[in-house]
Amino acid sequence: MTLVDWIGAWPGAVLLQRSGTIYLFVNAAHIASIGLLIGGILPLDLRLAGLIRGVPLAVIAPFLARSAAIGLGLAIVTGLWLFSVKPREYLANTAFLWKMALLALALLNIAVQHRNRHFRLALDGGTVHPSVRLVAGCSAILWLSVLVAGRWVGFL
Ligand code: HEM
Description:
With 156 residues, the chain is mostly helical. The chain has one domain (3-153). The protein has helices at 3-9, 11-18, 20-49, 57-83, 87-91, 94-115, 117-123, 130-153. The longest helix is centred in the first third of the chain and has 30 residues, at 20-49. The site of protoporphyrin IX containing FE (HEM) has 20 residues, from α3, α4 and α8. Residues 27, 30-31, 34, 37, 75-76, 79-80, 82-83, 90, 103, 143, 146-147, 150-151, 153-154 line the site of protoporphyrin IX containing FE. This is DUF6644 domain-containing protein.
C-alpha cells in the first residue's frame, strides 16, 4: 500500500467519503478557518505596508497575528482532512499543486518577516522599515493567491 493509498483509506477520509453532510461541515470549517486567517493577516499586512494608517500597531498586531495563526492552523488541519478524501485526484490537479507551492512561499515569507529585527521594532510601535513594508506587501499578495488557487481547485 502506498502512502497516497493509506491517506485515502484512513478512517477520517472514509467518514467524509461516506457522508456528504460531514464533508459539508469540514468544508465549512475550512472556509471559516480561511476567514480567520485572511481576516487577521490582511489588515495587519496592509497596516505594515502603509496602506492603512492611524491605527497603533502595538495595539492591533498581537491580536491580528494570533487570530491569523489560529486560522492558519485550523486551515491546515481541515485542508489536509479534505485532501485525504481523494488524494490521488488532488495530486493530479494543477490548481492544487499551485496552491501548495504558493502556501509554501507564504509560510517562507512569514519566516523571513519574523527574522527581520525591524519587524519586532515596528510591532513595538517604532517606525516601519521599508523591508518590513515590502515583505508585508508580498504576504498580502501571497495569501490572496493561495485563496484564489484554493477556489480554482474545484474548477479543474
Ligand atoms: C495544508 C493546507 C491546505 C490543504 C491541504 C488544503 C486543501 C484543500 C482541499 C482538498 C480543498 C477542496 C477543494 C475542492 O475539491 O474543491 C480546499 C478548498 C479550499 N481551500 Fe484549502 N487547503 C489548505 C489550506 C488553505 C489555505 C491556507 C487557504 C486560503 C488562504 C485555502 C483556501 C481554500 C479555498 C478558498 C477552498 C475552496 C472552498 C470551497 O469553495 O468550497 N486552503 N482546500
